[in-house]
Amino acid sequence: MEAEVDKLELMFQKADSDLDYIQHRLEYEIKTNHPDTSGEKNPVIVLKELSAVKSRYQSLYARFKPISIEQKETKNRICATLKKTMTVIKELQKQTDLELPPLTEEEKTVTEQLK
Amino acid sequence: TLKDDINSLLDKTRLENQESTDFLKATKILMK
Amino acid sequence: SDLEQLCSYVNEKIGNIKKIMSLRNLGQEPALKTTLSKIGDEIIVVNELLNKFELEIQYQEQTNNSLKELCESLEEDFKDVEHLK
Fold this sequence. Notes:
The structure holds 3 protein chains of 3 kinds.
Chain A lengths: L1 H32 L9 H54 L8 H10 L1
Chain B lengths: L1 H30 L1
Chain C lengths: L1 H23 L5 H55 L1
């Protein structure tokens, strides 16, 4: 069994290096057939840049997603805490008969906005 | 389509950023 | 799953080679050449979009930190008000 596995492993390694050789040989052939003229890239480079752009997009998207979710959660937490705080302040106001200055126009607008 | 995806995501992020900036300003006014 | 990974690894390599094979005859047809240079131009445009997107994400990370700081100080205020009560 052990020998069979080793043999299989060798086959995979050989296939891997053969594939590498074919790819490099093809790239070399294309580069020699299409030397980089002014402004024109050879197709292999364009292909590599295309996959680089795709993976860059995927990594940026992976970075963006959790931040966007976390931002919504934090905003909800802020609104909830603000609401609780305003409620307690009103209760304190009643208990102490303390007259607080009314909300300014700006504060009213902003409160509406946060609602 | 990759370009369209990026464009729509860019607009979405810009909008979210604008909203968060306004939200921050609003909350700071109330906290004064 | 190791074998599956191995297979997808080999398949990916074979896929790449097929793609490059299809590019091999590119020089002959001028129409394909223009398509190729158009793709090259598009890649530049997309990279510029990704640069903008990356800047927006950096701004978003900063805003996120400010929101978290604000949230913490608000929660401190709430505790003080609760204590007062």
